[in-house]
Design a protein that fits this description.
Elements (H helix, E strand, L loop, with lengths): L3 E3 L5 E4 L6 E4 L9 H14 L1 E4 L7 H9 L4 E2 L13 E4 L22 E8 L7 E5 H6 L3 H8 L2 E5 L4 H4 L5 H11 L5 E5 L1 E3 L6 E3 L5 E4 L4 H16 L4 E4 L6 E5 L3 E5 L9 E7 L13 E4 L26
This protein binds fe (ii) ion.
Cofactor: Fe(2+)
Family: Belongs to the TfdA dioxygenase family.
Pfam families: TauD
Length: 320
């Protein structure tokens, strides 16, 4: 039986996996939460990497965004138009690519989001679970020689990759349309493979499906090392799996996790909304920050609101 701890505000945090994941009860999410509740949620999020809330069906786009503001500054996706003209990204089984690859959100820009907040609107009668993996325990569990190897590596991440290889059954027009929107600006960013977490100080593996290659290696060596590290991240003991109900909310620390949306609900509708909170530019164990390789200048915030993509430019000096 899991144990729950209670704070003065009746917020309960119940661990649901050995290395990652907790369910939080006793709170109605929205913009009016007390400072104590926000602090409790943030602490649980940093400790457990992903936290889940049932029964938050009262949230709409505005309340979702108002809650996000309590954790930081909301940011739009750098290239994909939002669902509401502001910050909510639509994740819809009937449109766009499915997220059935392990990834960390938006790592193709330097200061990718710190937190993602995902709200379930319509959930299929079966399937469509999401898995999260803890990239801090993945690093900590590596044998020392592999930790030392990872510490010295840097990898190039991009939003330009082979969609057709990921969705061999998709119609060519659908793939072309998605690619055109998702890569309307092609970003290339170099990140350390090991990121020092800015709040916890933990070392985390910064990889996932936006990685193109490890700097300085041949394609074959790069692939072999990526597969090696990724296998430690994806190990079942290092993950938690969530079976969604409509009205659920999941929040993850995007700096210490990867996630995977399981594509097994056939043609049933599955609709979620995501709001992300701005992050900062990663640094490796050597203190060297991530850097934007291209474009030379980051376009104006997409769709008239901040996308977060340009916040990474300060350290590179390459963009306004
Ligand atoms: Fe994602």
């Amino acid at each position: 039986m899991a144990t729950a701890t209670h704070t003065a505000t009746a917020l309960s945090v119940t661990k649901i996996g050995g290395r990652i994941g907790a369910e939080i009860g006793g709170v109605r999410l929205g913009g009016g939460l007390s400072d104590d509740d926000v602090a409790g949620i943030r602490a649980a999020l940093l400790a457990h990497k992903v936290v889940f809330f049932r029964g938050q069906g009262h949230l709409d786009e505005a309340a979702h965004e108002a809650f996000a503001e309590l954790l930081g500054a909301p940011v739009a996706h750098p290239t994909v138009p939002s669902a509401d003209g502001r910050y909510a990204l639509g994740i819809d089984s009937h449109h766009g690519a499915r997220a059935n690859q392990w990834h960390t959100d938006v790592t193709f820009v330097p200061a990718y989001p710190a937190f993602s907040i995902l709200r379930a609107v319509t959930i299929p009668p079966y399937g469509g679970d999401t898995l999260w993996a803890n990239t801090a325990t993945a690093y900590a569990g590596l044998p020392e020689p592999l930790r030392a190897l990872a510490d010295g590596l840097r990898a190039v991440h991009s939003n330009e990759y082979d969609y057709a290889a990921l969705r061999p059954d998709a119609l060519p027009e659908a793939l072309a349309q998605y690619r055109e929107v998702f890569t309307s600006t092609t970003f290339l960013t170099e990140h350390p493979v090991v990121r020092v977490h800015p709040e916890t100080g933990e070392r985390t593996l910064l990889l996932g499906n936006f990685v193109q290659r490890i700097q300085g290696l041949t394609g074959r060596d790069s692939r072999a090392l990526l597969d090696l590290f990724q296998a430690h991240i994806e190990s079942p003991e290092n993950t938690v799996r969530w079976q969604w109900q409509a009205g659920d909310v999941a929040i993850w620390d995007n700096r210490a996790t990867q996630h995977y949306g399981v594509d097994d609900s056939d043609d049933h509708e599955r609709t979620l909304r995501r709001v992300t909170v701005d992050g900062d530019v990663p640094v490796g164990p050597d203190g060297v920050p991530s850097r934007l390789i291209s474009p030379e200048t980051v376009p104006d915030p997409s769709f008239g609101i901040p996308s977060g993509a340009s916040t990474g430019s300060a350290s590179t000096g390459s963009a306004a």
